[in-house]
Write a structure and sequence with these properties.
The structure holds two protein chains of two kinds. By secondary structure, chain A is of the alpha+beta class. Chain A is built from 19 helices and 24 strands. Chain B is α+β, with helices and mostly antiparallel strands. Chain B is built from six helices and five strands. The longest helix of chain B is centred in the last third of the chain and has 14 residues. Classes of the chains: A alpha+beta, B alpha+beta. Bound molecules: FE2/S2 (inorganic) cluster (2 copies).
């Protein structure tokens, strides 16, 4: 199998805008600029134009252009379902092109769980506008009023019966030339035949038979294989390179640009051998905190201001009303995306333009970074999305692309960079650490009068176009500096009716390693703090955790989710922990206080001698509004639960003061099959409500439900993630000595 | 450069290699163009690179070409195709047991090897057989269900 003859399985090349171009683009690699690609095709990418999203072909097929990409979430099925339903064609007739900046509209990054909620709804509206336009054109052809026509199976037909005209006859290979109409009437959810059903994902057969072309498998004619030599410490400068150290490996080229060092060879294994053998002298960068001392580092780190970011009522006044005071603190560590396949990308840089193939979740957004780095106009840089190994915000995909770009620019060849395992674990941008403290006041009769959450988290740089990349930094190429930890301060308040609350953030100037958005940034740690504190308050008030929450929750959908969670789990109400090694815990969220509702209950067994935690079963009730594809939602919820259990039980990036030392799966373990609990997931479908995201919401309550279950089993509160056996054992010993 | 011969998916294949220690992972992917096998760690820790060698699931990143001469390999491409999937692959499709799918090669090959030796494993056998295969997306539950579907019963 060579890739000059292999098609990308998610793209039907024959229908790629009438053929021809895709082959040229993939392999002959002229650095097509967006404008030239677009003008050749007469294709617009303006998100306000229907032609940006849809093309109707003469053979009756439809191409859907999506700026949002499928990261393994199932959106490749769901986007087709949305378009097919609204347009009136079967999904099998729709070809989908994703994330190619020359061909797709810029719908923003695929992140924040907004692929369907925002991107899908844009596509729905474009499809409705397209259908409206097709019906109007057909009305002229049929000489009938548009109101007497409907679309069935890609054909516009008289409602009264009789012969219709197909989309191809109406508009085959011609443009719509209509603007997206925000008011174009949508089909009624009661009439849905495609949306709401578990359509199979088109990419799964290829993925499980080894024929799916991942970024890692993609090839460009004449490309070389590059490897970056990352320094022995973060921020190190390159003093000298011993070129003779790789003399024994023929045909290797060294790329050195300021502090950037890489090797490239026609043969991949030669590039790997050279990257291992090459000797270089580096001067260490500034000292970093060690992971064991991160909390102290955070508290002593320079701050750029305090800010009350959320406020209800008057905290001070409320605090004065409640005589009983409670406090709790939490630490969430630095974590890695730890993608299973290290990042990979190919760049082909020419003097007048560049084409970059990568798995970025934000191809459109990142054209500006690559253009700046190469001092090219933005429309001369084309990023083409190809599926990568799972990414949950921003891993090393863009960095591998920047490495490839630097090397391609220096060597004048297309270069493929495949990060090695230690590169991914060591250098992917990290989920930032968090320190969270809470205080609440309660009256003698158990009424919560005031709640305050304080956070110490890095401050994101305002108006930062993109997270800075490693290669331009080390090579001294232009890019906009700054930090972007994502919406890390979100979700700091409980969802309950408490009269006086505020969230105060102590913004840190720096972050120990370059931060990025790791799935549900900040929200898991914040909800861990909030929802365990609710349990502490319930205990103080002498109430059962579920009863207390239901009592204080006014949102009807939320109450339903909570009650159904308790019921599906078989919740046994108690006002005190069992402390016999077996426990159950619950947590609830309305994600970002505005989106998907999730209730989660968990059962754990704790070995009180070793501190080992076995999660036995997880029940999750999930309401994300209208469901497009229930099986894909379910799959996302499963992923949220399992991945977050992994993050909660096992994961912490380790630093020795110079660099990351947890650079493989032994030093950064993740959850394995024997530790995966039984899952029970109930999806609530609300076809008449707007769809909300499913990619993140169910991560948020995982740590809190687990911590609450551990407390029930042991009477001990885990206040630092990960919940390792050593930590729990130490906490158990401490609680024994303190209670005598 | 020296020539190395292996049987791959029932066909005699030859690779010309400079380094006898080149891991079979790269030989499959580059010299032989079989890209279904994936690089995950190169350390034997993740299972993404699993192939069958003389019927046993092995990690191709840990097998130098010189140690693989005259061995019989099955890669995922030799197991089945989208049109004619192997029973394990068909079950993975039925259960939609892939998110990003980068781990799928290792999951499918390890499961196929398990079922070849133990046609009726229980859930724990399956979890143990896959204990050293990593998945970052959290597809575990579906993978176990898919294998159990082939195995029949619980
Ligand atoms: S790549 Fe071989 S075990 Fe990870
Ligand atoms: S499905 Fe992504 S790593 Fe398993």
């Amino acid at each position: 199998m060579t890739h000059s003859t292999t098609s990308i399985s998610n793209i039907n090349r024959r229908h790629f805008l009438g053929g021809g171009l895709f082959v040229a683009m993939s392999f002959a690699t002229p650095a097509l600029s967006q404008s030239s690609a677009a003008s050749k095709l007469g294709k617009t990418n303006d998100p306000k134009d229907v032609d940006a999203y849809f093309a109707i072909h003469a053979d009756g097929r439809v191409t859907l252009y999506s700026g949002k990409v499928d990261l393994g979430t199932g959106s490749r099925a769901a986007m087709r379902q949305i378009a097919a339903e609204e347009l009136g064609v079967p999904t099998s007739r729709i070809d989908l092109i994703e994330g190619d900046t020359a061909l797709t509209p810029d719908q923003g990054p695929t992140s924040g769980s907004n692929g369907i909620a925002k991107g899908g709804m844009q596509i729905r509206q474009a499809a409705a506008t397209a259908r409206d336009a097709l019906v109007k054109l057909a009305a002229q052809k049929l000489n009938l009023p548009a109101a007497d026509l409907d679309v069935v199976d890609g054909t516009v037909r008289p409602l009264a019966g009789g012969k219709g005209v197909s989309f191809a006859e109406v508009l085959g290979d011609r443009r719509f030339d209509v603007k997206l109409d925000a008011k174009a009437p949508l089909r009624k959810p009661e009439t849905y035949k495609i949306v709401g059903h578990a359509h199979k994902r088109p990419d799964v057969p290829a993925k499980v038979t080894g024929t799916h072309v991942f970024m890692h498998d993609f090839e460009v004619a004449g490309m070389w294989h590059g490897r970056t030599i990352y320094p022995p410490s973060v921020g190190a400068s390159l003093v000298s390179v011993d070129e003779a150290s790789i003399k024994h490996i023929p045909g290797v080229k060294i790329v050195r640009v300021k502090d950037y060092l890489g090797v490239a060879a026609a043969n991949e294994w030669d590039a790997i051998l050279a990257s291992r053998a090459l000797k270089a002298v580096w001067k260490d960068g500034p000292t970093l905190p060690r992971h064991e001392a991160m909390k102290e580092w955070i508290l002593s780190s320079p701050q750029v201001g305090d800010e009350v970011i959320e406020k209800r009522g008057d905290y001070q006044a409320g605090a004065a009303e409640g005589a009983r005071k409670l406090k709790s603190t939490f630490y969430w560590p630095l974590q890695s995306h730890a993608s299973l396949g290290p990042s990979c990308a190919i760049a082909d840089v020419k003097t007048d333009g560049a084409t970059i193939w990568c798995s970025s979740q934000s191809t459109h957004k990142y054209t500006s970074s690559f253009a700046k780095m190469l001092s090219l106009p933005q429309d001369k840089v084309r990023l083409i999305y190809i599926d990568g190994s799972g990414c949950y915000g921003m891993n090393g995909h863009e960095d591998a692309a920047a490495d490839a770009t630097v090397m391609s620019r220096e060597l004048g060849l297309p270069v493929r960079v495949q990060w090695m395992r230690e590169d991914e674990h060591g250098w992917d941008p990290k989920g930032a650490p968090q320190l969270i403290a809470q205080e609440a006041s309660m009256t003698a009769d158990g009424k919560i009068t005031a709640w305050k959450t304080e956070m110490w988290v890095p401050k994101g740089t305002e108006k930062l176009p993109n997270i800075p990349l490693l290669a331009p930094e080390s090579a001294g190429l232009p890019q906009v500096p700054g930090l972007s930890p994502g919406g890390i301060s979100g979700g700091g308040l409980p969802a309950y009716e408490i009269p006086n609350m505020e969230v105060q953030v102590h913004w840190l100037k720096a972050s120990p390693l370059r931060p990025s958005h790791l799935r549900a940034p900040g929200k898991i740690g914040n909800l861990l703090a909030v929802e365990t504190f609710m349990d502490e308050l319930a205990l103080e008030a002498g109430k059962d955790p579920v009863a207390m929450r239901v009592e204080l929750l006014k949102d009807k959908r939320g109450v339903e989710v909570l009650k159904r969670t308790a019921e599906a789990f078989g919740w046994d109400a108690r006002v005190k922990p069992r402390k016999d090694g077996k426990g159950r815990g619950i947590a609830y969220t309305k994600y970002k206080n505005a989106e998907t509702y999730v209730g989660m209950a968990m059962e754990v067994d704790v070995n009180v001698d070793t501190g080992a935690i076995a999660v036995k079963r997880v029940v999750c009730v999930h309401d994300c509004g209208q469901i497009i594809n229930p099986d894909s939602v379910r799959s996302q919820v499963e992923g949220c639960i399992i991945q977050t259990l992994s993050r909660t039980l096992l994961e912490e990036v380790k630093l020795d003061g110079k660099r990351v030392t947890s650079v493989d799966w032994a030093s950064y373990p993740i959850l394995t099959f024997p530790l995966v609990p039984e899952l029970k997931i109930e999806l609530i479908d609300r076809p008449n409500e707007p769809p909300m995201g499913a990619g993140e919401a169910a991560t948020a309550p995982v740590s809190a439900a687990l911590a609450n279950a551990i407390f029930d089993a042991t009477g001990v509160r885990m206040r630092s993630v990960p919940f390792t056996p050593q930590r729990l054992k130490a906490a158990l010993l401490e609680s024994k000595t303190s209670t005598g | 450069m020296a020539k190395y011969q292996f049987t791959v998916n029932g066909v005699q294949r030859t690779a010309e290699l400079r380094d006898p220690d080149e891991p079979m992972l790269y030989v499959f992917r580059n010299a032989l163009g079989l890209k279904g096998v994936k690089y995950g760690c190169g350390l034997g820790q993740c299972g993404a690179c699993t192939v069958l060698m003389d019927g046993e699931a092995v990690r191709s990143c840990q097998i130098p070409a010189s140690a693989a001469v005259e061995k019989k390999f099955t890669t995922i491409e030799g197991l089945g195709t989208p049109e004619k999937p192997h029973a394990v692959q068909a079950a993975f499709i039925e259960e939609q047991a892939a998110q990003c799918g980068y781990c799928a090669n290792g999951m499918v090959m390890t499961s196929a090897a398990l079922l070849a030796h133990t046609p009726h494993p229980n859930v724990n056998d399956v979890k143990q057989a896959l204990a050293d295969n990593l998945c970052r997306c959290g597809t575990h539950d579906r993978i176990v269900k898919a294998v159990m579907n082939v195995a029949g019963g619980r």
